[in-house]
Amino acid sequence: YPKTMVSVPDPKLESFYWIQFYKLACASRPHLKPVDLLGPWFRSTGWPRIWWNLNIETLYLPVYTGNRLELGESFTNFIDAKRANFYRNAKDIWGFDGCATVPHTTCYEGLRGDGSRAPDKYINPGDFTWALHNYYLQYRYSMDHSMVTDQSKHAFYPLLRDSINLYLNILKKGDDGKLHLPKLHSPEYGADSDNNYNLSLLRWGCQTLIKLNKRYNLKDPLIPTWTKTLKDLTPYPVDENGLRVGANLSFTKSHRHWSHILMVHPLHIMTGDQPENRALLNKSVLHWLTVDGSRGINGWSRAAAASLYATLGDGENAIKQIHGHMSDKRFVRPNTMYIEGSPVIECAIVLNRSLQDMLLQSWGDKIAIFPAVPKAWDSIVFH
Description:
Elements: E1 6-7, H1 11-27, E2 50-51, H2 55-60, H3 62-65, H4 73-81, H5 83-94, E3 105-106, H6 125-142, H7 146-149, H8 156-170, E4 172-173, E5 179-180, E6 184-186, E7 190-192, H9 196-216, H10 223-232, E8 238-239, E9 242-243, H11 275-290, H12 299-311, H13 315-326, E10 339-340, E11 342-343, H14 346-349, H15 351-359, E12 360-363, E13 366-369, E14 381-382
Antiparallel strand pairs: 1-14, 2-3, 4-5, 6-7, 8-9, 10-11, 12-13
Helix pairs in contact: 6-8, 6-9, 8-9, 9-10, 12-13, 12-15, 13-15
């Protein structure tokens, strides 16, 4: 506990925050498996295995700003130990050599496994790239340079490069001269070409690889390819309601995953600090939360919405979404455990990241202190 301290004038939220770190500490040990949807608790579940389209990524989001990096090592150590299996997946699923990925779900070896795996229609190259964003955060917050430079021990750099290699294998130049992605799944909405989920992760991956090469003088021969990809990649599809799901698919029905707005949070490659994007992002978030009567918005959707609003500097809407999460009695139990038919431990724990985002953010080469604090909070402390 002394490694981190947060105090806000909202006793229920503060209590909720500390309980989540207790649960995460119960669930994670650096030398053991990554945390699944049950954590250390047991009951029957419809969600066995490791889920890569949101669950494992959101679970670890609070450890970075929260100064609990040791709780994130179960994930990064797993990625290092199982690197060969991620290449095996790419060969098995896509038929590509020199590429790395995961299917929608894996066993605890990082492989597709037996017949209990999810249908192949949900397979998505972005899921693994998103997971590697968590590894990147572990590196950036620790500034352990060896996580990039010692590639025999740490798998992050080669796996990020080769997850982007998979994208490079499926990109096609269109009649407009732009590079386009084929029809891929956008969690948990549907499939479409040039979907924003995969476009944002491809952009983040190329940008990050170029930055790492500049910082560490890695001299990767693919730098010109990544640079050209960023230059020629088709823009994010938008319409009158904001960011679309994909080129031919509008966002017209309520659903719980903010996959089409991932470039805002947690990737932070499109932000409200960019004047040309602020109105678009406000419109996109509001449309996601209100379309179709918001019937598909679940508790953890509110946690993501709080972080999105915090990224936009809107503390009033951020705290409104946090309270909406905690009071959602459909899913949140009195002990703060979260259930959607079966337990999903990460869906309560991720709210810690929402509170952190209101108090401290770090992206775009700057650190923002108290970037999204509601007016009612007149006394706040974090260490």
